[in-house]
Design brief:
single chain, 307 residues, alpha/beta, Rossmann fold, two-stranded parallel ribbon, 13 helices, 6 strands, binds iron/sulfur cluster
Length: 307
Amino acid sequence: MTALVPPELVFACGAEPFDVNNVIPESKRYPKSKLCAWTAIWSEMLVNKEIEIDSLIVVAGGDCHNALVDGQKVQRSGIPTHFFFYPFDGNPEYLESQLESLSGFLGGVRYPGKFREISKLKKLGKKIDEKRCNGRISPADAFRILISFSDLCGDLNKLETAISSVREQKIELNNRIALIGVPPIYSDIHEVAQELGLQVVFDELPFEFIRHSGNDIHSTARDYCGYTFARPLDFRFGFLKKELEKRKVDGVIHYTQFACHHMLEDEILRDELDCPVLTIQGDMPGKTPEQVKLRLEAFGEMIGRQP
Ligand code: SF4
């Protein structure tokens, strides 16, 4: 899967979901042809059969247009590929028809009990998120778990074990930060931010991964209609503002990715949000670069001086 596709349905069809983005932050590859490094790297790895999959689900509508093209490159290499579209207007019937069509691509629902099993796991994910917000789990540990909810590690037992192995600790929350936008391509940004006195108490996209669920295709369609990244900006920012207020956020880091259309949202986001915003832009995967560290440090000092 190239982005969020209800993993409940993939499991219920007896398949094993794998979010191809999960290999990118640790990747050393420099793709031959690229706009966004995320899609360019997974596309090249899939075409070269460096990631083993049987078929690909491309989230082509309501999320990422680079994936639409890079996904077709993979399709042309012979891998069976399905294109999944979210409705911009949140129409539940449309999303239900998309889920039915995806179910057909995957051979139909064979294990309907998976929906409820995954709902329970998502409740555990919400607890992790809540504990991190209360300074009982480190932001990096929480992120590692929450990001895994896009594909549930392809193995529900493995994810449950990962959740139960998270160590509780006392984290000093001096600057409560929301990390907004697509997930950073830097593998250590939560640790780096924490070392610089910025504690991430909200990860926008991973929160979407744990927030939606359903007990069957019908209810899953109705819940996933609220997936903010696929909806108009007013819908997404309206949701964001409530979440930031609830979490008493002191500042926002808006992560943008080179050649990603979400960059265009920065100006509107700054108009909408009533708190300090730092925009950073990444390109290639790896550790957080020194210049980004300097900007994070300066942001921390600036927030620290807020009355
Ligand atoms: S960063 Fe932007 S362009 Fe790249 S995969 Fe994500 S949504 Fe698509």
